[in-house]
């Protein structure tokens, strides 16, 4: 198994409800290590750039408005199979489909306000990490 880095974000619905610590505990308890972290209130432009791959989707406006509606926590997580492991503990996009014990099952409010983001592949992770962090901000 390889040590990987993945990009994670705690979304505005979770910062609003003051549950960031509870979510970070889930990540750390699963063996992932936070090697970079900051609190960011992104602009609509930054949200549109980050989610550019979803530009043609009907929910793009809703998604980018929500993501720029309040503070987020952006993070780099490190660990064995970090990309897949983070996706596993996050749970399915729609909390109604998420497995018991996953972050989205326990915290998400809806398919849109679903508390966390996690990169879907190693290449995506590299791009998403570089979007939010400089190299010197990631301290392993
Ligand atoms: P994920 O965040 O699980 O990788 P995704 O990449 O397909 O899911 O979509 C990105 C985000 O867009 C998702 O976390 C919430 C929002 N979203 C996805 N599908 C949606 C829908 N049908 N209605 C509203 N928002 C949606
Ligand atoms: Mg995705």
From TrEMBL:
Record family assignment: Belongs to the NDK family.
Domain Nucleoside diphosphate kinase-like: 3-140
Keyword set, alphabetical order: ATP-binding, Cytoplasm, Kinase, Magnesium, Metal-binding, Nucleotide metabolism, Nucleotide-binding, Phosphoprotein, Transferase
SUPFAM superfamilies to which the protein is assigned, alphabetical: Nucleoside diphosphate kinase, NDK
Active site feature: 117 (pros-phosphohistidine intermediate)
Cellular component GO terms, alphabetical: cytoplasm
Residues given in the record as ATP binding sites: 11, 59, 87, 93, 104, 114
Primary location: cytoplasm
This enzyme's EC code(s): 2.7.4.6
Name this protein carries in UniProt: Nucleoside diphosphate kinase
Localization annotation: Cytoplasm
Catalytic activity line of the entry: a 2'-deoxyribonucleoside 5'-diphosphate + ATP = a 2'-deoxyribonucleoside 5'-triphosphate + ADP; a ribonucleoside 5'-diphosphate + ATP = a ribonucleoside 5'-triphosphate + ADP
Domain of life the protein comes from: Bacteria
PANTHER family reported in the protein's UniProt record: NUCLEOSIDE DIPHOSPHATE KINASE
UniProt-listed Pfam families: NDK (PF00334)
Subunit and partners: Homotetramer.
